[in-house]
Amino acid sequence: MLILFEPGARGADLTRAIRQAGKLGLKARRVPGLDAGAVAIRCGDRSGDPGDFEKLPGVRLVVPVSRPYPRAARRRRDTVIRLQGGRVLVGGNRFTVIAGPCVVEDEASVLRIARAVKKAGATILRGGAFKPRTSPYSFQGLGPEGLRILAAAREETGLPFVTEALDSRSLEAVARHADIIQIGARNMQNFPLLREAGRLRKPILLKRGQSATVDEWLMAAEYILSEGNPDVILCERGIRTMSGHTRNTLDLNAVCIARRLSHLPVIVDPSHGTGLRETIIPLSRAAAALPAHGIIVEVHDRPQDALCDGHQALPPVLLAGLIRDLRAMAKISGYRM
Ligand code: PEP
Ligand code: MN
Questions:
Q1: How far is the CA of 76 from the centre of ligand 2 (A)?
Q2: Residues 6+ apart with CB under 8 A from 258
Q3: Which residues face 81 on adjacent strands?
Q4: N or C: which end of the chain has fewer CB within 10 A?
């Protein structure tokens, strides 16, 4: 970061900025040979916040030189997340299909749906045991019993599973059972929870907040990475816009931007992306064309009876056809499934 001072700034102003950097644990020194004063700050892998210096006396401009999320920022090689000893991969040149019910309702239905999504060609199962619901009166999930059911479905089908943690307590339980831990849109900026997830050794699927910019999303990923967990999957799940026809607007632009800015895998959730079943197939195809690194899609064999989000769930027979299309499209994009 470079701090440029007003021409009339005094030596004491530069000293104050250097002292401020010191208090923040950053190394700073004067840059000699410039007409107006300048201070260069070395941020290393921590990144600095221009806001810490902009309001100091004599400061004209603070120029960030490195990205504010050094660990999430693009490197030459994409991160590839390995599950079950590398049998299932997310990222790199893979297109991965994650599918299952919105919420775990009971053992029989999860087993039925897990078998069906496996047969259709999905390689990871999804299902919520702890659910973030808009209304406190809506079904909140089965909690620990839901985790047991998901583990039973994995035992039978061999599919690894992803499920959401809502808070510290559920994070601990989810981390014990799940293959991937989801942090949902509503918790994208729950910074203590992100830090806790960063101290685990399980991949984290980080959904984009409903009103978050791409930079805020990557900064949320940085919280997890900065604690030492390198395995973060970004998931675009739709944002709030003025569209009255859909629950959210799936922001496919953001997938392209996130892929350019970061080495992390970026997947798409076409179910929450619009809240409509009819757009799941075209938007999943669009995800493969971008290309994203995969989709996470809600599937239910009796959507009319589903306890949550049945209106945005695909029946298994349509998933099978979609996956056939995605295989062809992934091939054109140079990706493997
Ligand atoms: C979900 O995937 O079940 C979910 C609640 O997603 P989001 O956090 O994107 O709303
Ligand atoms: Mn849902």
A1: 34
A2: 214, 217, 218, 234, 236, 264, 266
A3: 90
A4: C
Which ligand 1 atom sits nearest the alpha carbon of residue 309?
3
Q: How many Å apart are CA 119 and CA 316, to the nearest integer?
A: 9
Report the alpha-carbon distance of residue 204 to residue 197 in Å, rounded. 7
Q: Is 91 left (phi over 0), alpha (psi -120 to 50) or beta?
A: left
All residues at 6 or more sequence positions from 20 whose CB lies less than 8 Å from its CB, including other chains: 52, 53, 56
CA dihedral for 175, 176, 179, 184, sign (positive or negative): negative
Please state the rounded mean pLDDT for residues 182-189: 98
| DSSP classification of residue 208 | P
* Model pTM score: 0.93
pLDDT tens across 224-233, in order? Answer: 999 999 999 9
Question: What is the structure's pLDDT at 64?
Answer: 87
Q: Which helix (H) or strand (E) holds 55?
A: none
Instruction: Give the domains, in start order, of the chain with CATH numbers.
Output: 2-63 (3.30.70.1140), 80-333 (3.20.20.70)
Ligand 1 atom 4, closest CA: 184
